[in-house]
Design brief:
This protein is α+β, with helices and mostly antiparallel strands and 448 residues long. It has three domains: 12-162, Peptide Deformylase (Alpha-Beta Complex); 171-332, Formyl transferase, N-terminal domain (Rossmann fold, 3-Layer(aba) Sandwich); 341-442, Formyl transferase, C-terminal domain (Methionyl-tRNA Fmet Formyltransferase, Chain A, domain 2), CATH 3.10.25. Helices cover 22% and strands 25% of the residues. It has helices at residues 29-43, 135-148, 178-189, 207-213, 229-232, 255-260, 296-319, 352-361, 432-438; strands spanning 50-52, 62-65, 80-90, 94-99, 107-114, 116-122, 128-134, 158-162, 171-174, 196-198, 217-221, 239-243, 267-272, 281-287, 369-372, 377-387, 400-402, 408-411, 416-424, 430-431. The strands form four sheets. It has a six-stranded mixed beta sheet with strand order 10-9-11-12-13-14. Strands 15, 16, 17, 18, 19 and 20 form a six-stranded antiparallel beta sheet that branches. β11 (217-221), α5 and β12 form a beta-alpha-beta unit. α3 packs across α7 (296-319). The model has no long low-confidence stretch (mean pLDDT 92).
């Protein structure tokens, strides 16, 4: 029996809108034979999850889903058949997902899909079926209906990469911060999952377990502990570190916060680690943009995505020797310190711009706070904006006044800040106007 070939990306049929199948024809030998050929073609591919009829040269609105993707190992594996499918409901909430396609061999990219959908179609017996789906199955439904409409995932995908079927490098991941969790999520989204993930810098490192993994490389992202040399050197291709600064600038534990504080240019560097802190040879680095509204959370999210993208692109070239690491210039090194809770105390004698930067840099932890002198209570300023106009009455740094918009503002050494979101000790965060409704005497208060 001749193997049914799957059409590839240049085939004109993949760009056609497929024709509806007459309901009375679903039970005919022609359609049933087509379904068998589709199943044969799908199961001939080791990584096949679904297939649309146009992919084997039949411009009909039919797709099938591999039953092995939907059931446990013990259950019966029955392929799902959808004839004349239509999406009758899609969730507004979307998620960025990784996709490939049997007609776009070895191309992978990321695009947004609705997290939940409901589909209406006929099955192989001509019976009407309505099925809801979430996660991978929802993604499959949207991908296959795109096929029936002449749409390929690469039309809207971002970060499209050509990954031939060579073995993906294996790795162990070390990371104990929010930044590291972001990086790992991006790697997994792109199909790179670690053999082992170490997420606690407090626990003893499982040296023997790490040795048994046989990983090609270790990847470290904001782990909170310097690895001993014996572990750094353990993998065949050693250990890589994703650092959220342009090394040798801002070595140390808080580069993102210091970047927002104005002490460096934002960016990401990947180094081959040595036993010194952020000292190893640079493999690659890229600068990242920043604006006045960026805080620790927004900048972290962009830096982790850039760091993960760099890893995905460079690891294959690194382990094949195509990238030559470069030594850092230690004379240009700068350092950032470990942030402590007391660093969050606001000094209103400083320029308002510096106070704003502190609020945005410390929004995740420890927060930015002051003492309301008259009540001897701590207030945490969560969000704020710059206020250039100061009150006409005599004022001192730390004095609270009301702006023309009705919001409280605090005098600083130069200019002032308008409070947008605030939290008083023992209460939940609230917008500043609502806060004034509960604490009208906050106007005229002194913060220190």
């Amino acid at each position: 029996m001749t193997k049914t070939e799957i059409l590839q990306k240049d085939a004109l049929m993949l760009r056609e809108t497929a024709r509806l199948v007459s309901v009375k024809n679903i039970g005919t030998k022609k359609i049933q034979d087509l379904l068998e050929r589709m199943k044969e073609a799908l199961h001939a591919e080791e990584d096949g999850v679904a297939l649309a009829a146009p992919q084997i040269g039949e411009s009909l609105r039919i797709f099938i889903v591999n039953g092995e993707m939907l059931v446990s190992k013990q259950a019966k594996k029955t392929d799902l058949v959808f004839i004349n499918p239509e999406l009758i409901k899609t969730s507004k909430k979307k998620k960025r997902v990784e996709e490939g396609c049997l007609s776009l061999r070895y191309l992978y990219g990321q695009l947004k899909r609705s997290e939940k959908v409901t589909i209406k179609a006929y099955d192989e017996t001509g019976k009407t079926v309505v099925r809801g789906a979430s996660g991978l199955l929802a993604q499959i439904f949207q991908h296959e209906i795109d096929h029936l409409n002449g749409i390929l995932f690469t039309d809207t995908a971002e970060n499209v990469r050509d990954i031939p079927p060579a073995r993906k490098p294996t790795f162990v991941f070390f990371g104990s911060s929010q930044f590291s969790r972001y990086v790992l999520e991006e790697l997994e989204l792109a199909g790179f999952s670690p053999l082992l993930s170490i997420t606690s810098a407090r626990d003893a490192l499982p040296t023997e377990e790490l040795r048994k993994t046989g990983a090609d490389v270790f990847v470290v992202a904001s782990f909170g502990k310097i690895l001993p040399k014996e572990l750094i050197e353990l993998p065949r291709y050693k250990t890589l570190n994703v650092h959220p600064s342009l090394l040798p600038q801002l070595r140390g534990p808080a580069p993102i916060q210091d970047t927002i504080l104005g002490k460096g240019v934002p960016g990401v560097t990947i180094i081959r680690m040595d036993e010194k802190m952020d000292h190893g040879f640079v493999i690659t680095q890229e600068e990242e943009g920043i604006d006045d509204q960026d805080d620790f959370i927004t900048l972290s999210e962009r830096l982790e995505k850039r760091g993960a993208d760099l890893l995905i692109k460079m690891i294959p070239d690194f382990i094949t020797g195509k990238i030559k690491p470069k030594r850092q210039n230690d004379t240009q090194a700068s350092y950032c310190k470990l942030i402590k809770k007391e660093d969050g105390k606001i000094d209103f004698k400083k320029d308002a711009l510096k106070v704003l930067r502190q609020i945005r840099a410390f929004i995740h932890w420890p927060g930015s706070f002051a003492i309301w002198k008259e009540k001897n209570k701590m207030v945490k300023i969560i969000e704020a904006q710059l206020q250039s106009q100061l009150p006409e009455l005599p004022f001192t740094a730390g004095m609270v006044f009301k702006t023309s918009s009705g919001k409280p503002a605090v005098v600083c050494g130069k200019k002032a800040i308008i409070i947008e979101t605030i939290q008083i000790e023992g209460k939940k965060p609230t917008d500043s106007i609502s806060f004034l409704n509960g604490y009208p005497d906050f106007i005229g208060a002194n913060l220190s």
